[in-house]
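Note to self: keep these together.
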Amino acid sequence: MTRHRDTSATPYRPLNEPHRLDLADPATLRQLWELQRAAYAVDATLIGFDGIPPLHETLQELRGCTESFLGIADETGLAGAVSWTRLDDGTLDICRLVVHPRAHRRGVATALLNRLDAIESADLTLVSTGTANHPALALYEKRGFTPTSKRQIAPGVTVTLLERKTEAPPNGRPVHKP
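Structure:
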């Protein structure tokens, strides 16, 4: 008797822990660049606009950016990344959150944002995403971000700006205010 293996739900190996990415390392830079291109191609389809600047960024432009990066890997390689900058007033500005299409719905974005929250506390955190990118909006709103405005970036295409304020309780650990 031959037994057939059920391949309808291929299990994934666990993701690695998010870690800092060193863009001075050529292999890391290339992996991030390829991840970014794959992720932003999906975003471009969702929002109906392929003029997303990081989608057209060169390796040299990416290497020269002033953002800090965390990445997370799966069995295939770099599966997601988040980048941020710290503004002069202490505000944390999330610049990019990218997840490879092969890793969608595996908790990659959540793991990256959890780690970012753990290492970079802020009274105010900002982020923006395409208004038509409903999965990203839902993720941010679930994490306590509130839409504050929309900005048109092309005819018929808008970006939603979101913010999250936190307050520090007596124990000193920030609490997100939804």
